[in-house]
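Session log. Operator J.P. requested a structure for one protein chain; no other inputs attached. Running the standard single-chain path with token output.
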Amino acid sequence: MKSALQGRNRLLFTLAIIMGCVVAALFSLYLVNRITSKEQVVKNIDIDSKTLIALGAMRQTSTRNGIKEWTLDAASARILKEKHLAVLEDVSVHFFLTNGGEIHLTSRTGSIDTEAQDMTFSDTVVVRHQDRRLETDRLQYEKKRHIIYSTTPVVLTTPQARLTADQLTVNLNPRVMQLMGNFEGFFSENK
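Structure written below.
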């Protein structure tokens, strides 16, 4: 009987040592993480008399009838007092198509009408969809009609072609693109 109690005591003693080591290790990890972690630095956001709210980052998702239409991320945003407008920097938008595809847009600056949710993008606008790339200086999105359009020159590049035009309209749901104005195209064979 003494042998059974001694075996049980050894087991309990061993388990207590293991538990103590685990607690000590977790506490050590917590302390090391606490000491070495750096506080997040928020960009210096200028707030002027026209700004109601300034945000270090912004994320917004738009849905219609329970279906996600787009998701917007911006590195910073200023929501203006007198207008229903948010001014954005370092913008990234994913537009979701009815067939399950996505269109990804990036620009350095942009704005969104906080009521109508129409958007304007400028300063190095790049739109990507599968192997297609569109570049322009200014692009607009109209939520009600779910279209993207540009009244400034655009360059569309695919593996088989490079197209330029003065203006562009893209209807996102039926995925119809219309190039207008001075149109120029260079095509290559698909090999």
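Operator note: The first strand starts at residue 51 and ends at 55.
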